[in-house]
Every structure is written in structure tokens, then in C-alpha cells.
Amino acid sequence: MSTYRSANWFGKKDKMGFIYRSWMKNQGFPEDLFDGRPVIGICNTWSELTPCNAHLRDIAEVVKRGVYEAGGFPVEFPIMSLGETLLKPTAMLFRNLASMDAEESIRGNPVDGVVLLTGCDKTTPSTMMGAASVDLPTIVVPGGPMLNGRFQGEQIGSGTHVWKFADEMKKGNMTPKDYLFAESCMSRSAGHCMTMGTASTMACMVESLGMSLSGAAAIPAVDSRKKVLAHLSGRRIVEMVKEDLKMSKILTRQAFENAIKVNAAVGGSTNFIIHLTAIAGRLGVELNLDDFDQLGSHVPLLLNLMPSGKYLMEDFYYAGGLPVIINELKEHLHMDVITVTGKSHAENIQDNITCYNRDVIYAYEQPLIKEAGIAVLKGNLAENGCVIKPSAATPGLMQHRGRAVVFESIEDYHARVDDPALDIDESCVMVLKHVGPVGYPGMPEVGNMALPKKLLDKGVTDMVRISDGRMSGTAYGTVVLHVSPESAIGGTLALVENGDQIELDVASRRLHLDVAEAVLQERRERWQKMNQPMNRGYVSLYVNHVLQADKGADFDFLVGGSGSEVTRDSH
Ligand code: FES
Ligand code: MG
Questions:
Q1: What distance in angstroms lies between residue 80's CA and the mean position of ligand 2's atoms?
Q2: Around Cβ 206, how many Cβ atoms within 10 Å?
Q3: Which DSSP string do the residues of 474-510 spell out, in sequence order?
Q4: pLDDT along the chain (571 residues), means of 10
């Protein structure tokens, strides 16, 4: 009898074996598919409500070809798909839920290896987290970015240009007609955001961790080579099962260190920190906020992509893709760690290292920006840390002291930000509370608050903004995010009042609320928790168990794994 775990279903000779096989046979699978060959689960985040992943059923069919060809038995199953653009109040609220769906669907079913089909932001970390807690041989096929946006002769980037166009509309520089037309010019093919937003960041994370075939991250969704990648991944996962190349063998501390450095070099999203921390937590790999700063903040920016630079993912692919970045960083990465190919990064990139456009991918010695990685700040305003992405910020604001203008909630912000009477100028620091994991709940991407209209009209383009929320990977500005502990649980952020002085000093990694400790203590005693009427359903589970941002915002009870064993039968 086969030694794979699926034999505990299909290999049984008793009544249970009959049940496990017979119902599957209603799909027309021939007898020999149940002979003990590796069963490959294709975990699909396809959904028409997740437009970035809407093409993944086609991709799944191509993966199946590869699996069959290699002698495996592919079975596709859907899990909760998280679409960034439609899901309210924020897709992040459901990342942990989707991870539970992935985990239990994989563990409870007769699969020996897993292919994760991902795309839109949260679909990558949610499936990775769930799969990591089961720890079977697993490979990721990233769905790929959309083709570059094109509008009135110019390249436009997903997300990034939404913020720009919205500002232009606000200032009266763009007509409603052009605004509407720009929508179809931005999203013109299957695939995820083609800026270096969170989806592209996650695809690069996957490849740098060694969890996809080499070169996967940048291939556009509609490029025929995306299908080649899917086909080859289908073949490879069957071999991985035979080699028992589990996720935990690939995702070592060294692999995480590689991912942090690569993320800095590509100018990846701040969301990377939260997701990578959560994935590491599932595998018991020690990773804390300081690691991101120590390992990543001095790495130079090599990739010239929006929002930090000027190009888009299609250009990245044509310039050579992530293997070129890995090659540029090779002196600084653990090149000998094993990847899903069964080979090391060093072996993977051997014959795949030409850069075809040095304006898109810069050389390590002549980078776009010398130090680009995400900086982690601490101080009395964020005892457990907060983050800023210097490559997306304004150099002149990296050291700044200003008067706080406080918004108690996102509703408060919307109600007052454009009020001409709001007492604010460009030297002020905008502070937004109650947008953290517990506070919103779900930690939405609202940290890059749009500037007050009256300041935009004056030509102001950036201001220091601070919150316990996140920002879209496609956004930019001098934005301090992920303040931990968050305001809703009584972090110092909750105590900031209008008129307080705040000091930001990125070079010395400091965020300071210049208010005497005695005054803060007095405010602390007066502070009252905002009343949240959430006492049922998933949201109540969420607010009671979500960890703070610096711990990856996973649920406390999901940290770690339970392996793949299930001893009991269903009937
Ligand atoms: Fe799906 Fe950006 S909205 S990747
Ligand atoms: Mg996003």
C-alpha cells in the first residue's frame, strides 16, 4: 500500500474505502487514479468577486496537466477568496478566517501535496499561513499582474494612480468623464495590481522564500509563460511529494531573512511585515519587528516600480524579473537554502541572470536609493514599534516636529478633513486613531489619509501622518503605520490630543509624543475604551483573539501548527 497520507482514504479496503472512492467516482475518475499515486490538492482562490484572481480556474486546468503528466492525481478545491477592492470593511479582517479555511480544507482532505493559486493581496498570506500550519509539500503559483495601465499616452499604475487621480479631481484638474475613462485604462487584463503593491510584494515574497519556481513573480497573468509556469509547477509538486519536501524544510529562518532583504530591494509594501511575521509564526520561526529593520533597512532599492519609482510589473518581467534582483543581492542572501525546485537559489538562477533594462532593475553598486527597506520606529508613541517606508516618503519630512491634528476615527476624519475651518497647515502631523486590528476592526488601509483640500489647493503634496492602521502597498507619502499597541486597547496613541507636539526622526528610529509623562498618566486614567457593539459572529472572535500588528495580527490560537495527521474517520 502507498505510504502517502491519501492512502488513509483511497487505500482502504473496508466500508470507509468504499465511501471515500465511490463518491469521487461520480466525477468519472478511472480506477487507477486511486492506486496510491500522489494526490495533489489545488487550493484555488478563484472568485468573480476577487477580480485579480478571476482567471485562476484556467490556471488550475493547466496545473492539472502537469500533475497528470507527472503521475499524480489533481483535485481542485475552492477556499474563501479575499478581494481587496470589494470586501468591506476590509479584506484584512478576513485574512485569518481564510487561513483557517485553507488549513482545515487541506488537513481534512486526502491530499499529499498542495498547489496554492493566489493573486490579490490577502490570498497569498492567508493560504500560506493555513498551509504552513499543516506543513505538507506545497508550491505557490502566483496568478500574475495585470498588463500595464495606459491612459492618454501615459503608463498608469493600479492603486497609485487612483490616489493621484482622486487628488486631481479634488483640485478640479481632472474631469469626471476622464476619471471614468481612466477606470478601464487602468484595469485592462486579468491579473492583480501591476504596481509594487501588496500583491506584487507577496509574489516576490513567495519567490524569495523559495516557495515558487524561479522567475514566477513577475510573469503577467495573461502571458503564455504564466501557463508554462503553472504546468511546470504541477509537474514539480508531484516530485516534491515523492521527496517529502515539506514547507517547513524550505521556510527556515534563513529563507525569511532572504525575503526581508529582497523586499527592501524591490521596494515592497509595508504589509509585507505583517504577513511575513504571521507566516513565520505558523512555523515557529522567530521573527520580530527589529529583524525587518536590522536586515532590510540598509538594503538599497534596485527596482524602479511605482509607487516608489516609475515602471510597472510588465516592465519588471521584460527586464528579467526577480532572478535578476536575487542575483544582484547574492553576496547578501543565503544563496544555499533549498527551494521548491529541490535546488538552492544559487542553482536556480545559474542560467537566468541577464538584466535587459537597467533603468528598471538597478545594479547593487549603483542603486536607485541607497537605503530603502522599511524602517521600524519606537518611542513613547509606539512602545512596541511602528513602521515607515522611506522610499515612498518625502526626504524633507523624515525628521520633523509638528503639532498634532487628531482624528478620533475614520468617520471623524471624513467629516472634518475638508472643512475650511479645520485648524491645520502643512507643518502639522495628522493623527488617526481606532484603525488598528481591534479598533476598526481589521486594520484597514486608511493610514495614507488624503490631505485636506485646502492644503492640496495650496500645492502641498505630503505631510506626516500617523495611525495604527495600514496603507495600501500602492500608496505613498510620509506615513507612519502599524502603531503598536494600538489606540483601541489604550496604547499611547489613544492619548494624543490636538496641539500636542510630535517628533518624527526616521534616522534615529524615533517617534516621540512630547508630552510630560505625568500628563500622559493623567490622560491614561481618564481614557475610556470606545464602545464596540460586537458580540457575535466572526467579528467578535476576531477582536477577542487578534494579536497586535507587531506580532503579525494573527489570532493567538492560530500561532504554530497542528501538522497533517487526522486519525479518525468520518463514518
Ligand atoms: Fe487585488 Fe490590488 S486589488 S491586487
Ligand atoms: Mg492593497
A1: 17
A2: 25
A3: T--SSEEB--SS-GGGT-GGGG--TT-EEEEETTTTE
A4: 90 96 98 97 98 98 98 98 96 98 98 98 98 98 98 93 86 91 96 96 98 98 98 98 98 98 96 98 97 96 93 98 98 98 96 91 96 92 95 93 98 97 98 97 94 93 97 89 98 98 97 98 94 84 97 98 93 88
Using alpha carbons, select from 415, 406, 543 the residue that is nearest to residue 488: 543
Q: Which ligand is nearest to the CA of 271?
A: 2
pTM assigned to the model: 0.97
Sorted by where each starts, the structural domains of the chain and their CATH numbers stand as: 1-34 (no CATH), 37-147+189-350 (no CATH), 150-186 (no CATH), 375-530 (3.50.30.80)
Distance from residue 193's CA to the centre of ligand 1 (Å): 5
**Which amino acid residue places its CA nearest to atom 2 of ligand 1?**
193
- Determine how many CB atoms are found less than 10 A away from the CB of residue 531: 6
* Residue 173: burial class (beta carbons within 10 Å; 0-12, 13-18, 19+): exposed
Rounded-to-integer distance, Cα 222 and Cα 220, Å: 6
Residue identified by cell 498618566 is: 521
Cα 399 to middle of ligand 1, angstroms: 32
Ligand 1 atom 3: the closest Cα is on which residue? 84
Mutate to test the pocket of ligand 1, among 53, 81, 120, 161 (most ligand atoms within 8 A of CB): 120
For ligand 2, an ion, list residues with CB under 5 A: 84, 121, 198, 472
Whole-number Å distance between alpha carbons of 96 and 546: 9
Query: Is the predicted ipTM greater than 0.90, yes or no?
Result: yes
Q: Which triple of cell numbers denotes residue 442?
A: 481589521
Tell me which residue of 148, 549, 73 sits closest to 313, measured CA to CA: 148
Vertex 460: Cα angle to 459 and 464 (nearest 5): 175
Question: Is the separation of the CB atoms in 252 and 337 below 8 Å?
Answer: yes
Question: Is residue 59 within 8 Å of 141, Cβ to Cβ?
Answer: yes
DSSP assignment of 78-110, as one string? E-----TTT-SS-GGGGHHHHHHHHHHHHHHS-
Query: Among residues 109, 108, 52, which one has the least CA distance to residue 75?
Result: 109
